[in-house]
Amino acid sequence: MPIASPALAEQSAIEEAAEAAVEATADAVASVAAAGSKVEGTAENASIIQQKEETRLKRKEAFDFKPSPALWKIGDADSTVYLFAAIKGVPQPIKWQSEAFNRALQNADNIYFETPHIQRRDRKSRRQYEREAFHKLIRHDRDRIEDRFAPGLFNQIQDDLRIAETIGDFMPTWLVLTMVAGSDRMFQPGQSNRYLDFRIANAVLDRDVTVGGLEDPSYIIDTLNKVGEKKQRKWLNSFVRTELAADQSKRYKARKHGSNGRVGVLSARESQGVTWAKGLPPTAEATMPAGLNDLFQKIRTARMKKWPLKITAMLDQPGTSLVIVDQQYLYGENNLRTALEARGYMVDLME
Predict the structure, then answer these.
(1) 3 state SS of 333
(2) pLDDT of 9 higher than 60
(3) Which helix (H) or strand (E) holds 223?
(4) Based on the structure, what is the number of domains in the chain?
(5) CA nearest 277: which of 115, 26, 82, 94?
(6) Which residues span the domain enclosing 244?
(7) Are residues 54 and 105 in the same domain?
(8) In this structure, are 328 and 297 located in the same domain?
C-alpha cells in the first residue's frame, strides 16, 4: 500500500476543505430559501383564510333578512282563502316562514296543495295512488320508443333513456319527453314542492285541519294522455332537436349547470331562494326548449281552468283555507291571480 507524501496530503486537505465550504454555502442558501418559502406560504394561507372569512360574512349577510314570501288573500264576509307562492327547493340557510304565513297557517281550517298530500307513512294511500297512476300510464299497444323518434334522433339521445328502461316501450310519448328532459338538470317536469308540502302538512298533524288537493293525483296524467299521439311525437322530436343543437354551445353548458353556478357569494339556486323568501317576483328563467314548453303550457292551461273553480268553491263555505302552489302559477301570463280577478275577486298581497 503506497504512502502519500506530505505534499499530496496537504493538497488533499485543501481540496476537502474547499468542498466542505461549498457544501456549507449550498446548505445555507437552501435554508434561507426554505425559510423564505415558509414565510411566503404562511402569507398565502393567511390570505386564503381571510378570503374565506370574508365570504362567510357576506353569505351570512345575504341570508340575514326578514322573510316575507309572497302571500295573497281573497275573501268575503265569512270565508277567506290565502294563496301561498312556493318553490321547488328551499336552500338550507334560508329562513322562509314569515309572520303573515304563520298566521295564515294557524288560522287555516283547510289546507290545499296542488295534488293531495300523502304522508310517507300512509303506505296504503300511497300504493293505491301508484297503482292507479301505473294503470293509466301503461299500455301494451304502443310503438317501440325508438320508432317514435324522427330518423337518426334516437341513436343520439338513447343514453338519456336508461332511466326509463323499467317502463320501456309501454310508456306514453309525453312521458318519454319528460324522461329525456329530466336528464338535464335544468328541467325536472315531475318535481314538486315536496319539501314545503311535508313541512306544512306536518305542522298541522295535531290539529283538526282538512288537508287536500286542487286536483286529483292523476289529473295531469289524464290531461296529457288526451293529447293526440302525433302531437306528442312532435313535442318529443322538437325538444330533442333543440337540445342536440344546443349541446354544442357554451350557452347550453352554462345553462345545464346553472343550478350550481355562482351569483356572487351565493349559488344560483340560493340566489333564487333569497329572491323568493323576500317576496320578490321570480327572476326570468332560461327559455324552455320547444316541445317541452308545449307540454308545460298544456299543463298550465288545464290547471288554470280547474284551479280557479276549486278556489271559488272554497269561498262558498265558511272558514279559512290556505292554498300552496308553485310560484310559477301566480306570476306570468295566464296565472291564478288574474284568473280569480277576472271572476270579480280582489286578490290582495299580504304585508
Answers:
(1) coil
(2) no
(3) helix 219-225
(4) 2
(5) 94
(6) 71-349
(7) no
(8) yes
